[in-house]
Amino acid sequence: MGRKARRAATTRRACPSCGALIAADNPDQLCQRCRRTAGAELHGPPRVPEDFWDHEAMAAAFSDRNMGALLAAYRHHPQHVSRVTQDRMASWLGISQAQLSRYETGENPIDRIDRLRHFARVLGVPGDRLWFDRVGIPSQAGPDRGAPPDVLVAAWDASSIARSVEETARNDLAISRRAALSGAAAVAMGTSLVEPLQRWLHPLQPLSRWSSAGAISEEELAALQHVADGLRGWGGRGGYGLARKAVLGQLEELAERLTRAPAAPTTERAFFIGAELSKVAASMSWDAGMHDAAQRYYVLGVRMAKAGRNDPFAALCLAAMARQMFDLGRSEDGLELVQLAQYGTRRTATPTLQALLLTREAWAYAQMGRVREFHRAVGQAQDSFAQRRPGSDPWWLDSFDEAELEGVIGARMRDLAAHDPAQAEQAERHIRRALSLRDPSRVRNRAFDVIGLARTKMVAGEPEEACALIQQVLPKAAGLASGRVVRKLQDFAKEAERHRDLAVVRDTREAIRGLRTA
């Protein structure tokens, strides 16, 4: 064979689908046979039958809630007419082949909600198979007639705020949990979320001085507060059932009373009670995985607090909304909400509230990998917290104590360690201090601390120590019935995937899977 012939042979390309050599005069990436067979699959996923998703490998990926494993199972599915290569799937998803490879091996866990939704939408994953909050994938059944009111567009006068709360609570009481999870609307994001909330910075239109009903009496107000105090204690228990319905029922009744109440100091205080209940409902909804409902009640909490002339509590609700955005992978939206809260309370925030908002700002920077801004915000938070004065804070800031400050800083340093591994050592130090300070009665918070410490150990390359910590917390997690705790454990299981060759890791991941099933 001559030199030219050998050179031509070595430069021949193989078809990535079937492996056959491609003719020298064929400029395509596929051979002619695969081009005819694949057809439209070159530009997007093929149509698949309903039983496609029941394959054993697919079912395992759904059970593990692992999008990377789902992508791999999809590619290797035996029902495909032609082989789906990583290059081909990567082009469908709009990512590189190297990114897809890291996703499939678990080297880069897929935890951003927008990316999970995008991949599910491209591949056509049925909505009832999705595990990530079950919102954001457009329904093929058309608009839901029982859709909740849009709380972001309602007017900002006190009467409209009360009516919005009443309608929302009544709507949510009328639907089942299954309907809420399967038919929920997508959470608002970006400008559609932030811009309407900027209205809280403007003066509130006052209530009418006259009403067909009498003013709320001090006795009535005391009774409302007593009920709210009892319901508030359920906010940390998690779950969906009767506790959440009790909160929504009381919120609906209070809002109905407020639509008929004239302007008065007791009316403003009743609005603030409504803000408290709205925030409890939001926390319960978030714990149950209903992000859209949680967002509605956080917005209503902001609005009710505004009507109750309590801007600092409105800022607390905005901070909670920001934390929800961080959980959904929307760090930019979360940062804008925090900055909105900081601006609105720039003259009224106590040092403790300032410190809390600064930790939320640092949270955003940690997710973005902005190390310098993160440490600046953390330093300012610590300085503000050191300036707090006993007795100067409202009761609703009592939970933000030194243990919470240390826990939040430590957990966010763990997030930052994904971008800068040197942060892991500091993260462990802060989380251990949080555990030493944490009240033993704060069982769920302590569970978050231990899981955070275990995830830090995993980042630091200590999987055995990490699994030992998780094994300690699993019995308590089983008794909490908290969706957020379970989801944090699932995050750990995903991060442990790269150490799945270790028996202790396999056992721990299996125990977490059993907890979710139970």
From TrEMBL:
Residues 85-130 form the HTH cro/C1-type domain. Transmembrane segments: none annotated. It comes from the Bacteria. One of its GO terms (molecular function) is DNA binding. InterPro entries: Cro/C1-type_HTH, Lambda_DNA-bd_dom_sf, TPR-like_helical_dom_sf. This is XRE family transcriptional regulator. It comes from Saccharothrix syringae.
